[in-house]
Amino acid sequence: MLRRHVAYFLSVLAILISSGAGAADWPTKPVRLIVPFPAGGSTDVIGRIVAAKLGERMGQQFIVDNRAGASGTVGSESAARSPADGYTLLLTNIGSQGVGPAVFASVKYDTEKDFSHVAMIGTFTNALVVHPGFAAKSLGDLVALAKREPGKYNFATSGNGSTNHLLGEMLKLAAGIDLVHVPYRGAGPALADVLANQVPMMFDSLPSSAGHLKAGGLRALAVASAARLAALPDVPTFREQGFPDLVIENWFGISGPAGMAGDIVGKLAAEIKTVLGQADVVTKLAEIGLQARWTGPAEFSTFIKRDLAMWKDVVARAKVTVQ
């Protein structure tokens, strides 16, 4: 009997020791980073920048896995159902953790209970961009055109229930105009059609449209920030053009499935903080409209909880419904 007890104790001890060693050595194999949007959009661009840098620092590949659908909720559900061993992570954002769960009744995960939220990466703003050949040269011009010909003009977004969709609906309500929403499966394909002048305008996040704005492929009529952006000093805000409520703070971060080991979460959060402190990363992110901003696991989790509550209120007031 004594021998059995000793053998059992030693086996448990071995498991605990090996588990601790595994956490300390993590990662010992490639890590999958689920990006819940298609390649080419802002979430994908940011995910690849951060994944490459984490891979360099930690000596293992961080492989981007694009899983698009339903404003990021499809890929997020996949991440939530993955093993909590640190080898599947999720590039979270305002859409998948805030707007999506507020809009889609079909979301099958709980933002607060089904994830280990690791760290915020940064914040960015949205913009109303148009094809260079579009008749409206300002937001005022667009509102006037839409009032003269209600229902004539389409606007693209990265999908139903996205922040950009809600921003478009908020402008329609505030300006009393009728624009037609054309949802896409991500910012990449939507941008392609706006650049080709298949759709005249798009509500988009700056990380995906910034390069096209600089190259002249798009024009920006307004940004949804509280003040003008240093990167786009000539583009007025919605606020200064008569729409004070059209201010949105978007964000990106890294999360994993619920139940990730605390030391892995802490180690990853610290590495992300180091990466965001590197000058070249700050510059790359700034070039696409993202301001690097790190918060650790506890603060990030609290932030997401508040953000979800805020978007539930916005969705209710805007009466947005998504099938």
Offer a few descriptive terms.
2 domains; globular; D-Maltodextrin-Binding Protein, domain 2; five-stranded mixed beta sheet; 19% strand; 323 residues; six-stranded mixed beta sheet; alpha/beta
Strand residue percentage: 15-25%
Q: Any idea what the shape is?
A: globular
Mean pLDDT across the residues is 89
CATH class label of the largest domain:
Alpha Beta
CATH architecture of the largest domain: 3-Layer(aba) Sandwich
Cα-based radius of gyration, to the nearest Å: 22 Å
CATH homologous superfamily of the largest domain? Bordetella uptake gene, domain 1
Low-confidence stretches: 4-21
Q: What is the count of DSSP helices, taking H or I runs of 4+ residues?
A: 11
- Find the count of extended strands (DSSP E, 2+ residues): 11
End-to-end Cα distance, whole Å, is 63 Å
Q: What percent of residues adopt helix (DSSP H or I)? A: 40-55%
> What is the N-to-C succession of helices and strands?
HEHEHEHEEHEHEHEHEEHHEH
